[in-house]
Amino acid sequence: MSMKDCYFHIVTNGNIQISNLPQNMHAYADKCKSGYSRINSYILHKDICQIKEINGYDYIYICSYDNTITRKILQHYFDALKDLNLIYVNKLKDIENNANSDLRRLQHNVTDYNAAIRDDFSDLISPDEIQQDWQNIVSNVELIVKNNSRKAALTLLKTYKNSTLIKSELTVYDLIKNPNPHLELYPHFIHKVVKLSFQPYFLEFLENDIHLSWSDCLEKVQIDYPSISVVLGHIWNNAIKYAKPSSSINIDFDSSLNDVTVSIKMLSLAIEEREKNDLFKLGYSGYWAKQINKEGHGIGMYYIKMLVEMNHGRFSFHSNSPRQFVNSIPYTWNTFKLTLPKSK
Amino acid sequence: MIRDFGFNFVPLRYNQFTIILHMLFFKRKKKSNPIPSRTIEDLKNIVRILFVDDKSVPKAKQMKEQDHWHNVTKIKDITSLAQTEVKDAHIIFIDIQGVGKSMGFKDEGLGLIVALKEKYPDKKIVMYSAENQGQVDAFHKAASLVDGRLRKGADLYEFSSTAERLAQEAFCFENCVKHIKEVLHSELNIDKSEEEIQKIIQHIYDNNMFEDESLIAKAFNLSNIGSLASIIQLFFLGQ
After folding, report:
1. CA-based torsion, B129, A107, A229, A99: positive or negative
2. How many helices and strands, by DSSP H and E, does chain B display?
3. In whole angstroms, what is the distance from residue B31 CA to residue A230 CA?
4. Which neighbouring-strand residues pair with A317?
5. Quick one: angle between helices A300-310 and A149-177, nearest 10?
6. Taking chain A (344 residues) in consecutive chunks of 10 residues, what is each chunk's mean pLDDT?
7. Residue B68: its pLDDT value, please?
8. Quick one: pLDDT band at residue B19, thresholds 50, 70, 90?
C-alpha cells in the first residue's frame, strides 16, 4: 500500500490541525466511532477501513480504501502517525514559546526603558503641577527648566540613553525574528562608530567616575552599523554595571591585514574559570554579578556574539590578571576583543 | 625619476651627467594625472537630496544644519515622476508608509520606489520605514531595487553616511563616463565605447579644458555638444 491510498486527519480543539483527507470525506472522520471499523463509502463507492482515537475535543483519524490492507497494518500506520503527531505538536509549542518569549522580552524591556523615561520626566515636571494651568503649560515648564537646569539636563541625557536602549531592543528583535536578517554591510570608520555608540552612556560613566582613554584609528570596517551599535551599547552597559567605580577603561584599535580589533580593557567583576564557557549562552548571568545583585537577563553577551558573527566578525574575552578585592568582591583586568573585517 | 623616460633605458652609470643627457635627447612622455575623486565637502555642496515623507522629518533639517548637506528638500508626496524636485534630486529618501498615494500606488512608497527606479535608474534611492526590515524584504520588488535601507529611528550618522556613500557612487568617474555614453547615444545618436570616452575626459582634464564649453565640444570632435558639457562641468567643477 502506498501512502497515497491512506488518508489522515488530525483535529485539535475542534480545529483541523493537519490533514490530507479530501474535503468531502471530513464528515466520515467526524462521524467515525473510536477504534477500528470497516464501512462502505458511497462517495468513493468503495470499502474503507478506518481507525480513530478520540481524546476530548481532539481526535486522530486514519483511513484507507485499499482492500488488501489488514487491520494490523493500518494500526502500524496509525501508531506511526500518532508518534509523529506528538513530535509535531511539541515542536509547534516550542516555536510558539520561543516567539512569545522573544516578544515578551521585547515588551518587558521596552516597557522598562519607557517607564524610566516617564519617571524621569515626572520627577522633573510634576503632572499635577502642569495640569492645573494647562493654558500656560509652555511658560510654566520653561520656568521649571530654568529653575532646575541641571536636573533638566540630566533628564535629557537619561532620556537619550533610554531611547537608545529602546532602539537597540527593536533592532535586535528585528534581526533575531528573521530567518534571513537584512544587513547593510558598508564601510564605516571604526573609531567613529565606537565613539558614537558611546555617547548615550557618557553620563553614567561620569557618575561612576570611570575614565576613558582612546587610541587612534583611521581604518574602515565593513559592517552593518545598527547591529554593531547594539553590540557596543551592550558592552558599555555591562561596563557601567560591572566595572569598578573610579577605575579606567582603555580602548585600543589593532589593525591586521584583513581585520581591525577593538580591545576594551577594564577592571571589572572577576569571571570564574568554570563559567567562561557559559558566558555567551542565552540566559546566563555571571556568578559575581548575581552576588552583587546586578545580574541582567543573561542576554547581553549572547546577543553580542550573535550579532558580531552576523557581521562576519569575532568576539572574545580574555582575563589573566591577579584579583583585587573591594568589599570582598573580586575584580580583574578583563579584555573584550571585537574583531571586524576591514573594508576593501 | 628614471621611470618617467619614454622607454626602458638602463644607463651604465647613474651620474648627474647621464641624467641630463637623457633629458636633453629623449622626449619625455607626458604623464596623465589621475582624475581626483571628489571630497565629501564638495559633494555636500553639489548633491541634491530629497526626502519624501508625509510627516515632518527632523533628520532632513539636521542633515542640512548639523552635517552641512547644502541641498536638502522635503516634500509630502510625489504627484508626478517628472516634477522638478524629483528630476533635480540625486539621492531620494523615501518613507515607505504614507507616500505614493497621490499617484495611486496601492502599495504606497514601495510602488513609488519601483516607478522611480524604472524612470530614473541612476538616481539613488534609500527607503526607510518603521516596519520590520525582513517583512519588507520578503514581499516586495522595491527592496531589491533600492540603494540603501534605514530604520526609521536611525541616527543622523546613518542618514548622513548613507548619503556620503551614495553621493560618492553617483559622482564617481565610472558613472560620469556611463552617463556621457548614454547622452551621446540618446541626444546625438553617437555610439562611443567607455574606453574612448575615458580617454577624451582624461584629455579634457589634463589640458584644463573643462571650464570652456567649446573646448569640451572640440575634444569630442562635435559642434553641438548639448547637455554633455554640463555633465562634465558638474563632474569637474561641481556646478
Report:
1. negative
2. 12, 5
3. 49
4. A336
5. 60
6. 74 89 88 89 80 92 87 92 91 82 86 94 87 84 94 94 91 83 92 94 92 93 95 91 91 96 92 78 73 70 90 90 83 94 92
7. 95
8. low
Closest CA to B152 of B133, B172, B175: B133
Tell whether A188 lies on the interface with B, counting CB pairs under 8 A.
yes
Name the nearest CA neighbour of A300 among A220, A240, A217. A240
Residue A242 CB coordination number (10 Å): 22
B58–chain A Cβ distance below 8 A for any pair: no
Identity of residue B54: D
Q: Nearest Cβ partner of B149 from A178, A182, A188?
A: A182
- Residues of chain A with Cβ-Cβ distance to B150 below 8 Å are 184
- B153 and chain A in contact, CB less than 8 A: yes
Residue from the list A177, A180, A188 with its beta carbon closest to the beta carbon of B161: A188
Q: What is the ipTM of this complex?
A: 0.72
Region B143-165 average pLDDT = 91
Cross-strand bridge partners of residue A7: A63
CB contact under 8 A, A226 and B151: yes
Cβ-Cβ contacts under 8 Å for B190 (sequence gap 6 or more): B184, B222
CA distance to partner chain A, nearest, from residue B46 (Å): 22
Chain B positions touching A188 (Cβ under 8 A) are 161
Q: Which residues contact B177 (CB under 8 A, 6 or more apart)?
A: B194, B197, B198, B201
Q: What pLDDT shows up at residue B214?
A: 85
Which grid cell is A286?
Answer: 555571571
Does the distance separating the beta carbons of B134 and A177 come in below 8 Å? yes
Q: What is the pLDDT, as a whole number, of residue B219?
A: 87
Say whether pTM exceeds 0.80: no
The helix/strand/coil state of B174 is helix
For residue B133, the number of C-alpha atoms closer than 13 Å in the C-beta half-sphere is 27
Residues in chain A: 344
> What is the per-residue pLDDT across B209-227, written as a single tens digit (0 to 9) for each?
888 888 888 888 888 777 7
Cα–Cα–Cα angle for B128, B131, B133, rounded to 5 degrees:
75
Q: Do B134 and A174 touch (CB under 8 A)?
A: yes
Number of cross-chain residue pairs from A and B with Cβ atoms under 8 Å apart: 42
Q: Is B66 on the interface with A (CB under 8 A)?
A: no
From CA B232, how far away is CA B209, in angstroms rounded?
A: 10
Mean of the per-residue pLDDT values of chain B:
82
- Is the CB of B122 inside 8 Å of chain A's CB atoms? no
Nearest to A121 by CA among A146, A147, A157: A157
CB contact under 8 A, B132 and A177: yes
Closest CA to A299 of A286, A283, A287, A314: A283
- Alpha helices by DSSP H, listed for chain A, are 26-31, 71-124, 127-131, 137-147, 149-177, 190-198, 202-207, 225-242, 287-291, 300-310
What distance in Å separates residue A124's CA from the closest CA in chain B?
Answer: 25
A195 touching B (Cβ < 8 Å): no
